């Protein structure tokens, strides 16, 4: 059985023309090779909403491609709610915020996303929590006053995110099984650190293949360089989607 394409391509560049060209190549046309596009802080701080509209224009979006706006918001509840309101017209499918911002912050974001989407007749963006950045180890957490191991802290924050109304979390491949078990079948697990079998790992240390991550329960896979730096990004994206079990690309 085929599944919706779970592959979100990370567009990690500040070059507007390069981003637009890559998005058109992998997401344009009648048969997109990816399920969605991820634009993050680097791109958004450089180009803002007009840059998103230029690089990822409606004709491409109307093919049903998802839009993951990876802003990793973390501030007082009122400010985070305002940030959610500020991007709602871009109709992101997913927006990220740090679960460490706490219950009130996450709830404020969820309420604002729902209210603003309703007001504008748009689908409500799904909010995803960032738990423990994979760049932090136990010693880094200890230095911030947190004595739990990173995996325990990630689990704690994932459960807090779920209980605060978030739709899912970003997690490393090695957290998928435990979080799927703890947070239930409907919770979104968006997973970076994915490398197709036999490819270069770059600076990613603990990687999994698309097949392994999907089999463990990932809902979506974030893949950047293996697509963006391929000689033929479209063919690379299609191969990754097929590895993840999609047979209509
Ligand atoms: O090029 P690559 O596939 O490694 O890109 C992965 C994307 O996922 C990048 O945008 C990176 O910032 C993001 N990411 C990650 N690891 C995390 C969280 C996010 O690689 N733990």
Looking at the overall shape, the CATH architecture is Alpha-Beta Barrel
Q: What's the CATH H-level superfamily name?
A: Aldolase class I
Unique ligands = cytidine-5'-monophosphate
Reading side by side through the largest sheet, how are the strands ordered?
1-2-3-4-5-6-7-8
Q: What would you report as the Rg, rounded to the nearest angstrom?
A: 17 Å
Separation of termini?
13 Å
Shape: globular
H and E string: EHEHHEHEHEHHEHEHEHH
Into which percent range does the helicity of residues fall?
40-55%
* Proportion of residues in extended strands: 15-25%
Put simply, the count of helices is 11
Q: How many discrete structural domains? A: 1
The class by helix and strand makeup works out as alpha/beta
**Mean pLDDT across residues:** 95
Main beta-sheet annotation: 8 strands, parallel, barrel
Write the layout of secondary structure elements.
Elements: E1 7-10, H1 16-27, E2 36-40, H2 41-55, H3 58-61, E3 66-73, H4 77-87, E4 94-98, H5 103-120, E5 126-130, H6 138-143, H7 150-163, E6 168-170, H8 176-183, E7 188-191, H9 210-216, E8 220-223, H10 225-228, H11 233-243
Parallel strand pairs: 1-2, 1-8, 2-3, 3-4, 4-5, 5-6, 6-7, 7-8
Helix pairs in contact: 1-2, 1-11, 4-5, 7-8
Bound molecules: cytidine-5'-monophosphate.
């Amino acid at each position: 059985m085929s599944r919706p394409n779970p592959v979100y391509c990370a567009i990690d560049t500040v070059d507007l023309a390069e981003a637009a060209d890559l998005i058109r190549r992998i997401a344009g046309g009648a048969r997109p090779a990816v399920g969605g596009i991820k634009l993050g802080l680097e791109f958004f701080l450089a180009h803002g909403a007009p840059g998103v509209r230029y690089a990822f224009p409606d004709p491409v979006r109307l093919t049903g491609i998802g839009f993951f706006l990876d802003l990793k918001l973390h501030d007082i509840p009122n400010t985070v709610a305002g940030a959610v309101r500020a991007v709602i017209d871009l109709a992101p499918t997913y927006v990220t915020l740090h679960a460490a911002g706490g219950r009130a912050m996450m709830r404020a974001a969820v309420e604002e996303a729902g209210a603003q989407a309703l007001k504008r007749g748009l689908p409500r963006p799904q909010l995803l929590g960032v738990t423990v950045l994979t760049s932090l180890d136990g010693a880094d957490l200890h230095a911030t006053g947190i004595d739990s191991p990173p995996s325990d802290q990630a689990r704690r924050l994932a459960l807090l995110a779920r209980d605060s109304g978030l739709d899912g979390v970003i997690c490393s491949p090695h957290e998928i099984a435990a979080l799927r078990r703890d947070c239930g079948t409907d919770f979104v697990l968006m997973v970076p650190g994915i490398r197709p079998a036999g490819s270069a790992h770059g600076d990613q240390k603990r990687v999994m293949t698309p097949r392994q991550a999907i089999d463990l329960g990932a809902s979506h896979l974030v893949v950047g360089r293996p697509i963006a730096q391929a000689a033929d990004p479209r063919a690379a994206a299609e191969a990754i989607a097929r590895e993840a079990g999609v047979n209509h690309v």
